[in-house]
Each structure stands twice: as C-alpha cells, then as structure tokens.
Design goal:
The protein is of the alpha/beta class. The protein has a single domain, classed as Alpha/Beta hydrolase fold, catalytic domain (Rossmann fold, 3-Layer(aba) Sandwich). It has 15 helices and eight strands. It has an eight-stranded mixed sheet with strand order 1-2-4-3-5-6-7-8, with helices on both faces. Helix 7 crosses helix 9. It starts with 5 loop residues before the first strand and ends with a helix.
C-alpha cells in the first residue's frame, strides 16, 4: 500500500514551517541536520506510514521552504523548541515520538526538558547525548582550528562560507555528502591547515553519481532547494552554538528519561571523533536509553546510507513502546 505525501505550510508561531506527512497513527516527527531537508527522511516516511504511524518530516527553520531568519540568535533553543511545539499545536498533536539527526538530534535531546509532556519517546541518529562543555563552543573550536581546518570554526564568520558554498551548491553538496559517508574517512581533512583554506579546498572530490544510496534525481532535489535558498539558514545553526550554550548555563541539562533509541553509522565521523566511549557514557545522561545500534559500514547520513536497517530498528523500537 502506498501513502500520498501531504505537504503543509504551518504557522508555528514565530516561523512558517514546511511539513511533509504520510500515514495515520501515533505521530513520529523527524528533524534533519546540516545540510538536510525533509527529503533526508524520504525512506523513513513511507516505511513508518506502512507500519501504521503518522510520519512527519520537517524542513527545519533555515532550510527549504521554511522560514529562514537572518540572525543566528533566532536559532537558539527558545526559538527552535518553539518551532517543534508549534508544529504539534498546529497539527493538534498532544504528544509525539521525535527522531533527530545531526543538529536535529542535538535539538531533540533537549526537547523532553524544554517541552515536558509533549515527547513520548526519542529515536536519535548520529549525535550522542554529551555533557555541556565548560567553555563556550566557539572558544573550543578556535583552539582546534589553530592545529588544523575545522569546518565548525570556519562557519562562524558570516559571509565567507555563505558565499563559497552558495556559489557552487552542486559541488559542495556532492563533496560533503561523500566526505561524511561511509565511503570516505572524514577526519582526513584535518591534514589541511585553517589558514588560506575554505571548505571546498579541503573536502575530497566526490565520485560521479549515482551512488548506492543517492540517485542523480534525489541529489538534484537537494541542489534545486539549496540553489534557491543558499546555505545561510543552515550555517546559522552553527553560529547559534554559543547562544545555546549560554541558555544552558541558566538551564542545565536534565537526564533524558523518556524511552530512547540511539543509532549511528560505524564510520560516522562524529563517533570517530568522540570515540566509542561516548556511547557508554550516554547511560548517565540518558537513563531512558533502551537500544543502541551501530550500523556497519555506514557514515553520517545513516538514514539514507542504510535505510532498511534504520527503518527496521525504528519499527522494532516503536513496537515496544
């Protein structure tokens, strides 16, 4: 049975958000990261719908057809949590399961604390729950950038990255998707110095499409959307790091007690940077953690690279709620 995609523009309060739905049942809201779109969940939407769930994927604030505020502070937790609560309210949903990837995962980790009573469970991809840094993130990244190129540091200054990536969206998207995938070792870009380099200078050149997990038509959708919008909205999530950190100085993280599944690609650079110990340490931060899945051979975009395995893990977790 196939389920028709339902596209909405929702008034979430301070932002208009593009939402795509399939199916009916317990709602599952999926939040992407950089450089993503609702389309990053294209394999999860029909699988969840076919299993009897109401699958909901967003263009997050700053992306696609959703609002794209110019100020980085508009991407702090106050605003981004309000977006997700606003989506629930607009769709008349009291409580939902939330899935997050990359920046979407970082936001969703905070949701049970910041929106109590609205979160039934979490399905988190790629970014584990970690303690808040004792120093502002930009200070940490600036220190790292003294040793080698660090994209999160390069992205902090408004202008250079926006112009570089926006001038060549097709080349950037292909190269970053490839560099972060299981087909490449992303940490190899650390051999490059920060001085004199932009992101395209250090990323590997991607092999020609199609790849096993990304067709030419699928890639064309990403290029079409980012060619229209540019990358500033997505980059502002990086530029909001210190704003979020400051919010948490006044509102420290609480343990995540709702039922939680975590899933990561074995070759995800986030896991490689943090080390496997990060998964073991998560128990203290997430007492609700039930399942951890490490997908062999997959990289950062695990929901696309290993869609069948991700879908199976999600459905097994949901069935036990």
């Amino acid at each position: 049975m196939s389920f028709r995609e339902r596209h909405h523009m929702l008034d979430a309060g301070e932002a208009a958000l593009h939402v795509v739905e399939q199916g009916e049942g317990v709602p599952v809201v999926m939040c992407h990261g950089f450089p993503g779109l609702w389309f990053s969940w294209r394999w999860q939407l029909p699988a969840l719908a076919a299993a009897g769930y109401r699958a909901i994927a967003l263009d997050m604030r700053g992306y696609g057809r959703s609002s794209r505020p110019s100020s980085p502070q508009a991407y702090d937790r106050r605003h981004t949590v309000a977006d997700l609560v606003g989506v629930l309210d607009a769709l008349e949903i009291d409580e939902a399961v939330f899935a997050g990837h990359d920046f979407g995962a970082a936001l969703v980790w905070d949701l049970p604390q910041w929106a109590p009573g609205r979160v039934k469970a979490l399905m988190q991809l790629s970014v584990p729950r970690m303690p808040v840094s004792k120093r502002p993130p930009t200070e940490v990244y600036a220190r790292m950038a003294e040793q080698h190129f660090v994209h999160v540091h390069y992205f902090q200054k408004e202008g250079p990255a926006d112009e570089e990536l926006g001038a060549a969206p097709d080349r950037f998207l292909a190269n970053v998707f490839w560099a972060l995938s299981g087909g490449y070792r992303y940490l190899d870009i650390w051999q490059h110095p920060s001085e004199g380099n932009g992101y395209l200078d250090v990323l590997p050149e991607a092999p020609p499409l199609p790849w096993p997990w990304l067709s030419q038509d699928e890639f064309a959708y990403y290029v079409q959307e980012f060619r229209r919008t540019g990358f500033t909205g997505g980059l502002n999530w990086y530029r909001a790091y210190d704003h979020v950190w400051n919010e948490k100085q006044n509102r420290p993280d609480e343990p995540v007690t709702v039922p939680t599944m975590f899933l990561v690609g074995e070759r995800d650079p986030v896991l490689q940077m943090m080390g496997s110990g990060a998964l073991k340490q998560m128990g203290a931060q997430v007492p609700g953690l039930r399942d951890v899945h490490v997908i062999e051979g997959a990289g950062h975009f695990v929901q696309m690279e290993a869609a069948d395995q991700v879908n199976a893990a999600m459905l097994a977790f949901l069935a036990d709620l």
